[in-house]
Known about the structure:
- InterPro entries: AB_hydrolase_fold, AXE1_dom, CE7.
- Residues 6-307 form the Acetyl xylan esterase domain.
- This is Acetylxylan esterase.
- The protein has helices at 7-11, 23-37, 104-107, 155-171, 189-200, 217-223, 229-238, 243-250, 255-259, 279-288, 307-322; strands at residues 43-47, 54-62, 68-76, 83-89, 111-115, 177-187, 206-210, 266-271, 293-298.
- The protein is of the alpha/beta class and 338 residues long.
- It has a single domain (7-319), classed as Rossmann fold, CATH 3.40.50.1820.
- The chain has a nine-stranded mixed β-sheet with strand order 1-2-3-5-4-6-7-8-9, sandwiched between helices.
- Strand 6 (177-187), helix 5 and strand 7 form a beta-alpha-beta unit.
- Helix 2 packs across helix 4 (155-171).
- The longest helix has 17 residues, at 155-171.
- The radius of gyration is 19 Å and the shape is globular.
- The protein starts with 6 loop residues before the first helix and ends in a 16-residue tail after the last helix.
- Mean pLDDT is 94; it is low at 327-338.
Amino acid sequence: MLTEQDLPELFSYRSAYREPADFDVFWKDTLAEARARQEATLDLTPVATGLETVDVFDAVFPGFDGHPVRGWLRMPRRRSGPLPAVVQFHGYGSGRGAPIDDLLWASAGYAHLLVDARGQGGAWAGGGGTPDPVGSGPAHPGFLTRGIEDRTTYVYRRIFTDAVRAVEALRGRADLVDPVKVAVVGPSQGGGIALAVAGLVPGLAAAHFQAPFLCDIRQATRLTDAEPYAEIVGYLAARRNLVEQTFETLAYFDGLAFARRATAPAWFSAGLRDEVCPPVTAIAAYHAYAGPKQLRLWEFNGHDAGGPEDLATALSAFGALLKTSSRPPGVPSPAPAS
């Protein structure tokens, strides 16, 4: 098992990750380039679903280099004005799925934008609708090593930029959403993307990171042989002279650096039996997080990180923060890990 330490020892873990000196400059320039390319607009087309309480829209906005990125915007049918919003990012290999999937947040009274990760959506669940028009050099099968030879070509530079643009585009629809009450959420890869957005977008109202991927990446490759981190291991087994170059690239995309810059009230969770995203990597991100935060460790769960029970915690917490008449003030002092 990955959790041979007792809980106090596990919780005391601190990562050896060191961020690049020009991390902020790299991301400032990347986002400025995307913003200069095209305004962040959100185009919506109603979708006929047969649902009686939720409206669904095919959503399109310009992402990295102006490339069109798709998602679903779901909203409660009975609404009288701008709503608090939740922007969700999905797990590795999945996509936005079908229009009638993922009805939780809209059913709870939020505008819910579920965003594609470009180039994914062919592995499981309902699939995606966003291609990645950018190619890459030699890569291990999967997505994790595409363009990894350089920080400017790495696939997650495009995916993280798309995610930031999704929030900006949704905030621009003040006819539909309250721009100061926007939260980001996601499981696994989606949690890693949400964490990047939390570190890059100021003024978010809340965040939920469930078993976040892409945190403390080098340590994760030492602890697990499971996919997707095994893609990095396989790539470096074949390209063994590129080890340091590869981790120099990945340092610009590690969730710990984004966590240090994030200030929105946040809820983290991890399963102590998670062999996909080792729990110490979520703990490392939690400790690095600059804003108000809480962490729930699920002793007998794996990569589901508490599943619907954990989502229920986020649902309750978000209600207190996003469904008030004023700008969210934050959360109480963080609870101890449990």
